[in-house]
Amino acid sequence: MNQCDMCAFFEYDEDYEEYFCSVDMDEDDYGRTYYGERKDSCPYFRDGDEYKVVRHQM
Fold first, then answer.
1. Closest to 23 measured CA to CA, from 40, 1, 48, 2
2. Nearest alpha carbon to residue 45 among 28, 19, 22, 18
3. Using alpha carbons only, what angle is made at residue 33 by residues 10 and 24, rounded to the nearest 5 degrees?
4. H or E stretch covering 52
5. Distance CA 4, CA 10 (A)
6. Could you tell me the residue range of the domain that residue 14 belongs to?
7. What is the pTM assigned to this prediction?
């Protein structure tokens, strides 16, 4: 499982029947994220676990 699978920005497109990253990136951001030295970590990653905050408050 990669980092994108757990990201809040990873959404399913019913028209294309596939998942995609919905972050509005320009070409430079895309290149740094997918082809750069930080290939394994995305600067736009946001944990898609909606209950994480609730569990932390308990």
1. 48
2. 22
3. 50
4. helix 52-57
5. 6
6. 3-40+47-57
7. 0.62
E-strand ranges in the chain read: 10-13, 18-21
Torsion 23-1-6-12 (CA) sign: positive
Number of domains in the chain: 1
Instruction: Dump pLDDT digits (tens) for 8-35.
Output: 899 999 999 999 989 898 888 877 777 7
At 44, the pLDDT band (50, 70, 90 cuts) reads confident
CA angle, 13 then 17 then 3, to 5°: 65
